[in-house]
Amino acid sequence: MKMTISGKQMTVRPSLKELTEKKLAKFDRFFGDDAEAAVSYSCRHDLQYVEITIYYNGTIFRCEEGADTFQNAIDEALESLERQIRKNKTRLEKRLRSGAFAPEPGDVEEEEEGEFQIRTKYIPVKPMSVEEAILQMNLLEHQFFVYRDAVTEKPCVVYRRKDGNYGLITEE
User: Fold this and answer.
1) In the chain, which segments carry CATH 3.30.505.50?
2) In what order do the strands lie in the sheet with 155-160?
3) Most CB atoms closer than 10 Å: which of 31, 36, 86, 150?
């Protein structure tokens, strides 16, 4: 697995890089050599955060965890990633490398998620600006809002981020 380790507004110590590489090596059984992992460290609100994003065969695995130390944060993040993978084991088996789910000593069997419950909702998608879409999302008290951009006429999604800011998803 190829790894990129960086720090946001900080320098990552060589010992932390070594620890990260060692701990992420555990995921080699799920991913092939062409997997790419981006690990980012940061400090916010008196906590130390690690964000791990793994790209493999067109699938993105991501988690972000905060703790009192970077070591605890990476342990929690790796547990979270493994939980995501195990929870969606059946859906992922075709995408991950063969033998990825062979039981190893000490493995805990995670209860797998059943069929997805999908509720369909049809809404009129009218052209509007980003500001209008954010206002509408806030008025509805939703976490995201789908709309058509008034200028480009492309479908877009605005969403509320964990940090309280907003994000925009649009096609190129």
Assistant:
1) 127-170
2) 127-128, 144-149, 155-160, 166-170
3) 31
